[in-house]
Amino acid sequence: MFRRFVISGILIWCALGASARTRLHYGGTLRLEVQGDPWQGPDGIARRLTMDGLTQLDIAGTVQPALSSRWESQNDDHRWQFWIRSNVQFHDGTPLTADAVALSLTQSCRYRCPWTKVHAVGQSVVFTSDLPTPDLPSQLAQAKFLISHQNAQGTLEGTGAFRPAGFPHGVMVFTANDDHWSGRPFVDTVEVRPRRSIRDQWMDMGIGRTDVVEVPPEMLRQAGQQHLTIVASRPGNLLLLQIENTGPLANPQIRQAIALAVDRNALSNVIFQKQGEITAGLLPSALSGYGFLFSCDRNLNRAQELRSGATPPQLTLAVEDGNAAMQLSAERIVLNLREAGFKVQLAPVGGKTEADIVLRQIHLETNDPRAALDEIAEDSEQHVSINGTDIASIYRAEKDVLATYTVVPLLYLPRAYAISERVRDLRLAVDGSPLIADAAIEDTK
Length: 445
Hints:
This protein is of the alpha+beta class.
C-alpha cells in the first residue's frame, strides 16, 4: 500500500508539473517576422492587428458580426443595413459612429465598389446598389474594408485588438487593447520585424529570436524535414497569368495558345514541390465543386496550331512579385511559350517595362464562392456578371471570364507559418492570416 501511495504521489506531481509548464496566461511578447510591409496588401498583418471590419470570417469561413452587431438585406439584396456595435472606440478614444464608418468605407473604396452608395442612418450604415449584392456581408470582411479614422495628426486610428506603439530599431511594436469589443488579447505585446528574407527569418527562429516566421509553399517539405512546427492554410493564393488583350495580343486565339502552352504540372511538381492545387479555374475546387470541368492539361500541338500564321512579335513576361519561386516559375513559362513558337523575353526584376503578360498572385480572402469570384475579378480587372446566387450561375460567370483568355489560372497555393515551442493556440483565418489575438505564450514559471 505504501508503494502504491508513493507511485500515485509521483504521478500527481508529474501531472501538476506538466500542467504548470503548459498553462496559458495573459502577458508576454509574441515576435513575428515577415518579408513584406505589414501595412500593405490584403494580407498585411499590421492592418489586421489594429483594425476591424463590419464583419469577420471565422476559421470555417462563416460570416460573423464584428463592428456591426447585426444586418439585414432588403429589396432583393439591392439594399443592406448594418447596425453599428455600441460603446466601441477608436484607439485615440474617438467613439465609433455610423458616420465614421460610412466615411471610412467611402475613402477606402473609390471605384469598383460592391455598392453604389453608402451612408449613415442613425446608428446604422446603409448600402444601396444598382445590382443585387447577396454576398456583401462576406465582402465587407476583406482587409480593404477595415474601418479607420484620421486623428488630428493625420494618422489612421483603428479599433483593433492591438494598438501601434512605435517603431524602435526597425521593429513594429503593438500593445494589447484592453478595451477591445471582443475582449483583451492574451499577449501584452506583438513585435513585427518587416522586410526580413526567409533565410533570415529561419535563422532567427533557430536561435530563439522570433516566434513566428513565414514558410513559402515551395519550402513546406523542407520545413517538415527540419521538424518545424507548421500551421498551414487551405490553398488560397491564386497564381495566374494576366494577358493583355490589345496590340499583338488582341487576337483571342493567340491568348488561347498561350494558355494551352503552359505546363502547370511542371510548375507544381518541380518548383512548388507538389504543394497546393493545380487549377484551370478561378475558384478552388473545394469552393466551387466544379473545378474538374476546366481542363488543366497542356496541349502544345493545339497551341502551335492556334499560333500558326498569326505569330506576334517579341512578347515580354514580367513578374509582379520578384521572389525566387515566382522568378523560377516565370522562367519555366517562358520556355513553355518558346516551345509553342512564341518569341518571349523575361522582364528584368524590378524593372518598369510594360509587359504583355504578367505572372502574379491573388490573395483570396473569402470562403463564399460568389464573393470570391467578385474579389478575383476586381483584382485582375475583369468584368464579371453573376446572375444569381446558385452555383450554376457562378459557373457560367466564371466560364465567361475564362473564355476571354485574359486571365489564365495556374495553381492555388497555401500560406504557412512555423511557430516556436512557446506559442500556443495560433490558428489561421480562412485566408491564411494568423489570428494573433487568439494566440498565447506558454507560462514556464
